[in-house]
Structure formats: C-alpha cells, structure tokens
Amino acid sequence: MQYTQLGRSGLVVSRIGLGCMSYGSPAWRPWVLDEAAAQPFFRHAIEAGINFFDTADMYSQGVTEEITGRALATYGRRDELVIATKVFYPMGDGPNMAGLSRKHIVQACEASLRRLGVDAIDLYQVHRLDPRVPIDETLAALDQLVQQGKVRYLGAGSCAAWRLMQALARADARGLHRFVSIQNHYNLLYREEERDMLPLCRDEGIGVVPWSPLARGRLAGATATARSASDQLTPQLYDHPGDAAVIAANLALAQTRGVTPAETALAWLLHQPGVSAPIVGATKVHHLDAAVRAVDLRLDADELAVLESPYQPHAVRGFA
Description:
Layout: E1 3-5, E2 12-14, E3 17-19, H1 35-47, E4 52-54, H2 63-75, E5 82-87, H3 102-116, E6 121-126, H4 135-147, E7 151-157, H5 161-174, E8 179-183, H6 197-204, E9 207-208, H7 234-237, H8 243-257, H9 261-270, E10 279-280, H10 285-294, H11 301-308
Parallel strand pairs: 3-4, 3-10, 4-5, 5-6, 6-7, 7-8, 8-9
Antiparallel strand pairs: 1-2
C-alpha cells in the first residue's frame, strides 16, 4: 500500500479509503451487508494496508458506524487508523435532527463517538453544506469540536467551489480550524470538478477524496446488481449519451493491460493531481483486491489521453 498526506495537513492516509456504506442493515437498503458478512472486508482491508475508513451517521441510521467501530477495534490498532464520518442528513423526524446547526453538529458528533466506540473522530466531514444555517455558525461549531478534542480534522462534502472557498476564507478570517479535505463527486464519467474545484483544492492545499470513483460500478463493468435494482441515484448521475464511449475506452485499455476495468478507472483517478484517496465501496472481496492493485498501476501519458478523450461536458451533478 502507498500512503499520502491529506492535502497539506499532517494526516497520512492510504491511497485507497474503504467506504463503509455497504455494511449495516439490509432493512435500510436491500444490498447492504449485515455485520457478519461485513467483517471479512475490514480484516482484508487492514491486512492490505488500508488505514482510511469512511462512514457517515446516516448510513443504516447509525448501524454502519456501530459495525465499523466494532470491526476496527477487532482487526486494527486504533492509533494506526484514520476513522472518518459525516454529519448533515436526517437522523430522525424532529426539526433538530438534521443539518449543520450548532445543536445538530454537536449532538450528532457525540452520538457518532458513542456508536464508533472511540474518543475522537479523525476526520469529521460535513456531508453537504447547509444553506439554511449561517456558515459562521457551522464553522464555529466544528471548531469547538476540535478544541474539545472530539474531532482531529475537518472535511467538506460536495459543493460548489465558491462555497468551499467561502468556508475557507471565513475560517481563516476568524482563526478557526479549516477544512483539510473535500469528499466530492469525481470519476472518469464525471469530470466537471476539473473546472474550478480541483484547481482550488490544489491551490489551498485541500485533499480530495472522491466518492463514487467507479461511477456506482459502471466503470467497473457492472450491469444488473442488487444495488442497481433499487438505486434511484445512478440514472440521475450518469445519463449522458457520451458516457458509453468513456466506459468502452476504459474497458479496451483494461483488456490491453490485462487488468480489470476497475483498476484502470481507479488508476486514472489516482494519477490526477491533488487526489489523495478515492473512497471505494466493496461487497465482494475481489472488488477490494482490484482497488488495492490499482494503487500500483502506472498509466503513461498516451493511456491517460485515451481514457480522457471521449469525455463530453456534463451538467453539474452530485451536490444534493
């Protein structure tokens, strides 16, 4: 495994992060693996050198955090792990059970700490920015958690580049801890982040940890799966008529190199300046193995151009 600093922070993460949304309660989503089925993935990831684990409070309404916490306590050494979770989406029906108010951020963090069974969250991320709450309130609440030792680093979620810059500028002006990373929507099928967000992140030293690096399996060659049968978001994110040409180019290169299309798609992402660690989900062990192999797969300039040339501009997707 290779490792890198998360942006300009001192936090060191593996070049692949394991996304834990797939582990929790099948009652939440039918394709989610229960705790017994999830255990081998955490063990396998740690044995492969992955130290970066990403979850969120809303995944399986808290069950994912509980499973993640127990698995990492069983298979890992806490001081060597980077545990990331998120806040924003509803955790109940009440008016204060969602969003980025001071009240919800603080109570959500304390609940995540209990479920994960840890004293501090290494990377606490806002799943999205909250347009209803003044950014100063959100930033002050997050800074408070760092000052109290409940959180070590702060991360942002998908948003417009101007909103991330606003948050960074406001934090700097007030002497608050700023975001060190962003978990954004970026892959071979969706490259609109290259216009503004990625240059901003490189300039400001913000680590990039893309979600859906395989475009919800489309770049890995997946067709009908248990997840796709009930997934309403995939057709909203990936409906461009030009996507097929990108998928075909990736498959052709993978065949030429004698690797899986997941490996070439992830390798392309890992070659992009500023990208720290794509967040990879896995419901089969070979998914995880392919992601690990991709870290060491080197693509030359001609191969990168072959993957990139079919791309056509897309409408902005992934902020909701």
